[in-house]
Amino acid sequence: MASLRSLSIWFFFFFFFVFLINPSISIRTSFIKLPTSDGSRYCDSWRLAAETNNAGTWDVIPSICVDSVAEYLNGDQFRSDYDVIADYALAFAKSIEISGDGKDVWIFDIDETLLTNIDYYKAHGYGSEPYDDNSFSEWVEQGTAPAFGASLRLYNALKKLGFTIILLTGRDEHQRSSTETNLRDAGYFGWERLLLRGPKDQGKSATNYKSEQRSKLIEEGFKIRGNSGDQWSDLQGFAVADRSFKVPNPMYYIP
């Protein structure tokens, strides 16, 4: 009887241990279940998770969400989202007392912030295909990306308020000429500096590279009042702005 009882206890603990460590049968799976539906509701939820940085690092959009992302980017909701963020940014800017010494800075990213590359991504699955640096570089050199209406409106309003505009992009230094031409053709004029990646910046994460550039500006005496970008890496790190504004981009993630 004692040996039978010991055997029963041994089996109890054995199966209890297996139950805990095996995720396929663990009780935790009954509480945390990822959506597997191919409906638009899941894709709307995924897009929210990506925009709020809750999705963490991701490489391409879920294949089931291509149509949903395309519909969003080409629809009224995307333009409305962009307009609302621009309105909040402008309202904050109007609350700043400009010193008049040219040191009150607003930083803008370029791609998917000032300029839209939607025509490029339409041809590449709206972010469902892995990023191709050579292909995108060819697109950049064409210099045909149009402006976001809301960003151009915000940009011009900030200039009228007296902010110094600095453009901080992950594009490379050799793309300066095509970038400047594209910006002017899209309606952007009068920026103070256009900061691009130089040879020493290659290999750095976007967060570190942009933080370092902002730090240099602060060392020069600039006060970074605002920062607009489509990636969290445009906004986070160190030497951050007084307030940052994340514009929507569900097509790609840059750490």
UniProtKB/TrEMBL annotation:
GO terms for molecular function: acid phosphatase activity. Keywords: Storage protein. Coiled coil: none annotated. It comes from the Eukaryota. The keyword Disulfide bond does not apply. Signal peptide: none annotated. NCBIfam families: plant-AP. May function as somatic storage protein during early seedling development. Belongs to the APS1/VSP family. This is Acid phosphatase plant. It comes from Arabidopsis thaliana x Arabidopsis arenosa. The lineage of its organism: Eukaryota, Viridiplantae, Streptophyta, Embryophyta, Tracheophyta.
